Amino acid sequence: MINVAKAKIDPAQIFAHPADVLHEASLTREEKIDILKSWEYDECELSVAEEENMRGSNGHANCLDEILQCLRALHADETGSRSIDTKHG
Description:
Blueprint: H1 4-9, H2 11-14, H3 18-22, H4 29-51, H5 64-73
Helix pairs in contact: 4-5
């Protein structure tokens, strides 16, 4: 059983790939979207840190494209929630 609260805080510690979230049968669509959006935020923040010549501390490869594909597969834009607001849009 997936610890949803922990997965929302640090998805990369629970899942090896964003597609693993998408295919996890024990999660609801809303939980999957929340987890993927959290992961999206983390990856965007990591990208900003890299732009500023700082290294990310988690060592995970940037997988933003895969996260966005998974969110599209879940039709996340239909939930009424807005995309994250960060320095990079």
